[in-house]
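Per-residue structure
===
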Amino acid sequence: MKFLEEKFVPLAAAIGSQKHLACIRDSFTTMMPLTIAGAVGVLFACIGALFDTTGLNMPAVMNGYNNFIATTGLQTVFGAMNAGTISMIAIIISGLLSYNLCAANGVEGAVGFAIGVACYLACLPAIDGTYFGAQGLFVAMISSLIVGTIFPKMALNPKLQITMPDGVPPAVAKAFSSLIPAIITLVIMCCGYTYLAKFTGMDAWTLVKTFISAPLSKLTQGVGMLIVSYFMIGLLWTFGLHGANIVGSVTSPILTPLGLENVALFAAGKEPIWTVSGGEQAAFCFLGGSGATIGAIIAIFLFSKSKASRSIAALATPPGIFEINEPLVFGLPIVMNVVYMFPFIFGPVILGIISFYLMELGMVRRCCISAPWVTPPILIGFLATGGDIRGAIWNVVAIALLTALWTPFIMMADKLEVAE
């Protein structure tokens, strides 16, 4: 334990606060409301399939619903919600990431946003929408990391700034101050894209897909990915660090495009193909929040005789229903508590392993809707799988398993409290 406190925890904290990773994380966090809004559009556009012959076998309901949204124009509305958010994520992220990194480097973020989007759009092989969405996300992130690094260095160089007279409005003065750095940045990025394609015979998007995104995507599609990431999230939390943020800053750039591809496939009436896409974390494995603590709350109410534990569980229940468990993590406490470390760390790992094989075997649909992470258990299993009732049923079974896992440790804590 002492070794982990002295060596591992500082390293994990440093990774979590690393500037570029933090900016990527913050960019996706900012994008989250739009991603969820687009996913809601996809869900309502496709929810009629729940009543197909392969689902609840109520084709009359399905046909009635589909006719209703078509004749009322809601089908177009739902499609537009998706088209303006998920289908544009590469462009939006290119701006947000440039904004955040420029701001972190001491330059006005709004200018960075505009330059980031301009550099990405200027070098697209075709303005046909192909690389506006998830397919262009990796290149958008790489492009914006470069823009957010080189533009601030030039913008902060006094020799490259155009100084306007005192009577010029501040907005105009700021625009001219960054004019030369903006032009140079755009030229550098366009030259980079152009000559990369000239010398390799492949554009940046093809190169990244071939040598970066495809290998990384294949690497994630194993149960080992879930085991390692969930183990690290739980371990970091037990030392008081936000494990989901730290691990997510590394995994989100890889898994987010896969999750968005699943959404796009579902919107097109096809089955999602990526088992590990990030959505399964909230939908199946972290019920009640990190550590899957919904089982701890139920076990306390059923078996604990400790007044303190029951009081904390009562306070933690309302936020816990919405996947917010800090009151339990720090109030029980679970942080730095050896008794609760095992179920907190291994509960999500066990659910991750089972969920992985349930999805691989087709017993539960892969996640294909970006359901809000604060969605209560059972409902989130239903929504994240595009209205698959099997997802909700698996949530119910998972909660029972979690309760059984937490029970002996809750009872052990009671005995230790009495002994003290």
About this structure: The chain has 19 helices and no strands. The first helix runs from residue 2 to 16.
